[in-house]
Amino acid sequence: MNKKKQTPKIKAPDLPSYLEKQIISPSFLRDDERIQLVEIEGQTFNGVDLDKLYFEKVRFKDVIFEECSLKHIELVDVIFINCDLSNVDFSDAIIHHVEFKACKLMGTNLSGATLRHVTIEGCHADYASFGFTNCKHVLYKESSLNRSDFYEARFKHTSFFSCKLDQANLAGIELSGVDLSTCLFDKLTVSIEKLEGCIISSEQAIGFAKILGLVIMERE
After folding, report:
1. Domain-by-domain residue ranges, the chain?
2. Does the 22-211 domain belong in CATH 3.90.76.10?
3. 185: buried, middle or exposed (CB in 10 Å: 19+, 13-18, 0-12)?
4. First to last CA, the chain
5. Is 171 exposed, middle or buried, given 0-12, 13-18 or 19+ CB atoms closer than 10 A?
6. How many CA atoms lie within 13 A of 150 on its CB side?
7. Beta-carbon count within 10 A of 22 CB
């Protein structure tokens, strides 16, 4: 039986039309710091290693995070625009109503994070780790996720649109209703017993047949 496509309905971050621009000094940040209702633009955060930072109704624009560990961070109603978050440790984060737009997420660690109403659009997220994430109402759109790791993540109302997923790891994930039909990949790691109901294109079907161990013979 064909499953109906499930396009997640994403609630956008709820930010006021005006946010005061503020310079945040990394040296003054502390564990459990709460930062709200500001726009942070053009800054570089280097070597920040803090636990349980809280950002609410914040816009980050052209911000660079270098060698940062921000475990258990909470992001609520936050937008990242053209930011470099490569290799940042966001493990066990709580991320609600957040957009990542045209950001670098190369090697970013989001393992164990909880994502609710999140959009990752136009991002470079190769080698990113989403293992054991809990995703509900999440959209990966027009992003590069080659060799990314989603091992045993939980997907509900989660979709991929025009993403690059070559050699991504989707093992241990229930893929029923997950739409991969517009994505590009030559190889994908999945759990065969969890494939039922996954939405793919007719062109992708040959690749999935090989995953199932079938031999495709061309007629002369």
Report:
1. 22-211
2. no
3. middle
4. 31
5. middle
6. 28
7. 13
9: Cβ contacts below 8 Å, ≥ 6 apart = 137, 157
Residue 126, both tokens? 């190769």
Longest dimension (CA), the chain: 71
**Is residue 218's pLDDT more than 70?**
no
Element (H, E) at 44: strand 44-46
C-alpha R_g of the chain: 19
The model carries a pTM of: 0.91
Which of 16, 89, 25 has the alpha carbon at shortest distance from 58? 16
- pLDDT digit string, tens, across residues 159-203: 999 999 999 999 999 999 999 999 999 889 999 899 889 999 988
Residue 66 clears pLDDT 90, i.e. is over it: yes
Query: Is the separation of the CB atoms in 197 and 216 below 8 Å?
Result: no
- Reduced to 3 states (helix: H, G, I; strand: E, B; else coil), residue 192 is helix
Count of residues in the chain: 220
Give per-residue pLDDT as tens, 7-31. 668 999 999 999 999 999 888 889 9
In which region does residue 92 sit, left (phi positive, over 0), alpha (psi from -120 to 50) or beta (all else)? left
φ/ψ region of 32 (left if φ > 0, alpha if ψ in -120 to 50, else beta) reads left
Contacts of 143 (CB under 8 A, 6+ apart): 120, 121, 122, 123, 124, 125, 163, 164
Q: Which two tokens stand for residue 16?
A: 């006021």
